[in-house]
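Suppose you are handed a protein chain with no further information: no name, no annotation, nothing but its sequence. What can you learn? This example shows the usual starting point.
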Amino acid sequence: MKKGFRFYIALWGAKAVTVLLKLLRRNASFFPGKFATVVCPGFIGKIDKPNTIVAVTGTNGKTTVCNMIEDILKDNNYTFIDNRYGSNIDAGVATALISGVNMKGKAKKDLAIFEVDERSSPKIYPYMTPTYLVCTNLFRDSLMRNAHTEFISEILTKNIPKETTLILNGDDLIASNIAPENKRIYFGIDRLDTDGDKCENIARDIIVCPKCNSKLVYDYVRYNHIGKAHCPNSDFKSPNIDYLVTNLDLENMKITLRNGDLQEKYDLISDNIINIYNIVTVITVLKQLGLSSEQINESLKKQKIVDTRYSEETVNGKKII
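A reasonable first move is to predict its three-dimensional structure. Written in structure tokens, the prediction is:
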């Protein structure tokens, strides 16, 4: 996109606002981007961007996944821009992009990691093409904001650029089917001893086949609609997994991850199934970015799950999670 006079006014004004807010000891993580997008509509499309962009979206886990990716990249001496301390809507992404360019609007970094709210897709993806877009999962969330998973998945499918490679939770029947024309990479966890043969939940986010409305048949259920399923009357089914956990060893806190003919072992930093999915997501992304299993695992062992997302304590001999 052609930059033009309004773009430079927006950029220079946002840079000045950033300096002012930092002098006032504010984070300057939202308002500079908001200022820029108001002054120059389409600002995100006009500003120069890093060559490689990783966007992370989904109902649960996107903050944890982003933070872990960023921490491991830093531990391996990668430099990048991110919206870790800002918002995950268009203004937050714009603020991060502003921090990553010079006064001429030229990108200073080759890599960006962005957490992106699903509802912000129409304001971001038409102006920015992620190299990789990660979808951790899609669940029914706040009914006042997200209504239903079909509503959210349709927003994503309509706005994700065709050139973007998707990294998707293959155990999630909803997330694994967004933007079906895009190139995709799936991660997942093979059947566990704790999985059931049928879903016991009264409320589920997907019950029937989206192609023919037949009731789905589960090969195994982990929780909610997470597991492996197929339609008895159409070709709708869980996908083949590219990065598959074939062995989950909670006693020794290790996983075996299969990718093609490779079988690699990684250390776990949590035995919670939600966070194990987050760890597998992180490994999949970092492998796509070119890190070796040794680099990932050595840095992974230094990580800690954010306490605001998951914490444990023992009170009067009782374990509280």
